[in-house]
Write a structure and sequence with these properties.
Layout (H helix, E strand, L loop, with lengths): L5 E4 L2 E2 L2 E7 L9 H14 L4 E6 H10 L3 H9 L4 E7 L2 E4 L13 E11 L8 E10 L2 H17 L1 H7 L3 E2 L9 E2 L1 H20 L3 E2 L5 E3 H7 L1 H5 L4 E5 L2 E5 L4 H9 L10 E10 L15 E11 L4 H19 L4 E5 L9 H18 L3 E4 L9 E7 L5 E10 L1 H5 L4 E2 L5 E2 L2 E10 H12 L12 E5 L5 H13 L4 E3 L6 H10 L4 E5 L1 H6 L1 E6 L3 E7 H13 L11
Helix pairs in contact: 2-3, 5-13, 10-11
The structure holds one RNA strand of 76 nucleotides.
Length: 556
RNA sequence: GCUGGAGUAGCUCAGUCGGUAGAGCGCAUCACUCGUAAUGAUGAGGUCGGGGGUUCGAUUCCCCCCUCCAGCUCCA
């Protein structure tokens, strides 16, 4: 089809494969049908894959003759003296292989998308077209995979955010989310829970300003390391910056008073709004925004308190994520090349993190050299509906800020010492965490989080007055309740409530009115039958108090 | 930021080979008074993302910009 196109690299990935191609004019989705029919022919012919070997020189000669600089570069970078390749029909390609004995084993495949990708992931190098596709041994498995993709689309938080009236974006504020009344209910419930959990764990809460003088950011190192992502302004002819992180402000609070080792560990939480100038192309719903709220905390302590403190935070994250039924993956990142501090400090800090993880028996992935320049860190990753992984909680040890801000405390010996500092977040960014929850629950929040917890549905307008009584009684009981007094049919009102993922629908007709009851319908369990209004109130209040997930509803 | 794609009613989308647009849902009004996922009728609602150009005439063709989508790069 495109004899001049140059193949670059094409590995298998989870659920499929991609191939980077240098083609001019660029490939588009309109080319997919033609490519797929070529693939179809190849599959039907059932060519065997034949393994072959070249010496490095032979391989280089082959691709230099073909005028393919990408393969030449790949071969040059290979350490092996012999290069394996695979051949089917007249097509030869470098491959460690083997994947399959013959082309006929591919029973079902589909090209999914095409997008640009930098050669070898380097933005200074040419951009190629990357074609993504997927293949399965049977049509049935392909169909199942495509069904999962469609389900993921249904759960997409951007779509549900609109449908459920939770938040919106506007061209006037790219990357700056607007939270609607219903979205704020969820966020506020999350924060109420958060504050209670922090109170239990002896945290204080502080708040620092959004805008602070440039001098402060020069002192903290942000001016040197993070300027490109910051917003600036002027006040009375002095230079100021909008904070991209909360730590410098937190350091000033620490320095405002004298500290004793007796007060350690000193845990100061801050629900801090930060602004970061992210590149336009990386913005992604609530997952990647330009203003977000970190459920931050800075913990000041002696170095020998680090390990216990880290264990405490790991338990904290686990306890919080369990409430939502969220699964997570843990990563430990160690000292990067460009970093500050002594080897001794890094060893102490890294082993404290490692020991904490080992003590908890937590499996983790090691990211050698991926830590922050000021210290190692433990990250907690949660996957979205398309299996993309997002960092949420993180625990970071910091040796830089205590130095830069000359922090100290009075030790048992009466002398001044340098404290250790941990930065940590539990939700991470509340916006991102909300997005994770929307996709995790598919919009069907557990009752304690649901913007509307129950809708009263009169069967006809003869029961409107009773429906209002029921609504008022539930409102008095502290529930988020609405009465649907529209002149739609009962079936229609049920559908409307189901569509909005309201946990409980309370159907009231003459029978219920006469007995002071409600007919309870749960959005997943269906019709639960009639019960006295008070019985329903205690049931739902218990469910809310327990923060029960939907699949636990039956047990109540 | 880069490559490619898209932007038409509140939402989801159709349409115009250049003569200023249509559906479903939603909304409003009226009728219906209904027992667990859609009762019917009528009506309102759009400077076709923004600016410039070509043209007698641009939502449609061309250029620039904005925003969104997929991916890449980035992500203390």
């Amino acid at each position: 089809m495109r004899p001049e196109a140059k193949l670059a690299i094409g590995p298998p990935i989870e659920d499929g494969f991609y191939y980077d191609i240098d083609a001019d004019p660029p490939l588009t989705e309109e080319d997919f049908a033609a490519i797929e029919s070529e693939m179809e022919k190849t599959v039907r012919a059932d060519y065997p894959f034949e393994r072959g070997e070249w010496s490095k020189d032979e391989a280089l000669a082959h691709y230099e003759r073909a005028g393919n600089p990408y393969k030449v570069e790949l071969i040059r970078d290979l350490d092996d003296g012999t290069i394996t390749y695979y051949r089917h029909d007249d097509f030869v390609d470098l491959c460690r292989g083997p994947h399959l004995p013959s082309t006929g084993k591919i029973k079902a495949f589909k090209l999914l998308s095409v997008a640009g990708a930098y050669w070898r992931g380097d933005e200074r190098r040419p951009m190629l077209q990357r074609i993504y596709g997927t293949a399965f041994p049977s049509q049935k498995e392909l169909d199942e995979h495509l069904r999962l993709l469609a389900e993921a689309e249904r759960r997409d938080h951007r779509k549900l955010g609109k449908q459920l009236d939770l938040f919106s974006f506007h061209p006037e504020g790219p990357g700056f989310p607007f939270f609607h009344a219903k979205g704020m209910i969820v966020l506020n419930q999350l924060m109420e829970f958060w504050r209670e959990e922090h109170r239990k764990r002896q945290y204080g809460e502080v708040r620092t300003p959004i805008i602070l003088e440039r001098k402060l950011w020069e002192q903290s190192g942000h001016w040197d390391h993070y300027k490109e992502n910051m917003y600036f302004t002027q006040i009375d002819e002095r230079d100021f910056a909008v904070k991209p992180m909360n730590c410098p402000g937190g350091m000033l609070i620490y320095k405002a008073t004298l500290h004793s080792y007796r007060d350690f560990p000193l845990r100061l939480a801050e629900v801090g709004t930060v602004h970061r100038h992210e590149k336009s192309g990386v913005l992604h719903g609530l997952f990647r925004v330009r203003v977000f709220t970190q459920d931050d905390a800075h913990i000041f302590m002696t170095p020998d308190q680090i390990q216990d403190e880290v264990i405490g935070i790991i338990d904290f994250v686990d306890a919080v994520y369990k409430v939502f039924g969220l699964e997570y993956a843990v990563e430990l990142s160690t000292r990067p090349e460009k970093s500050i501090g002594t080897d001794e400090m890094w060893d102490l800090a890294t082993s404290a993190l490692r020991n904490a993880l080992d003590t908890k028996g937590i499996a983790y992935k090691l990211n050698e050299g991926d830590g922050a320049f000021y210290g190692p860190k433990i990250d907690f990753h949660v996957r979205d509906c398309l299996k993309r992984s997002w960092q949420c909680a993180t625990i970071q040890l910091d040796f830089a800020m205590p130095e830069k801000f000359d922090l100290d405390y009075v030790g048992p010996d009466g002398n001044l010492h340098r404290p250790a500092v941990i930065h940590r977040v539990i939700y991470g960014a509340i916006e991102r965490f909300l997005a994770v929850l929307i996709e995790h629950f598919g919009g069907a929040f557990p009752t304690w989080l649901a913007p509307v917890q129950c809708v009263v549905i009169p069967i006809s307008d003869g029961q409107n007055a009773y429906a209002c009584q029921v609504r008022d009684r539930l409102f008095e009981a502290g529930l988020r309740v609405e009465a649907d007094l529209s002149d739609d049919t009962m079936k229609y009102k049920i559908r409307a409530a189901q569509t909005q993922q309201v946990p409980y629908m309370l159907v009231v007709g003459d029978r219920e009115r006469e007995s002071g009851a409600v007919s309870v319908r749960h959005r997943r369990k269906g019709d639960l039958g009639a019960m006295p209004l008070d019985a329903f109130v205690s049931r739902i209040q218990e469910e809310i108090a327990l923060k029960a997930l939907d699949d636990a509803v039956e047990a109540l």
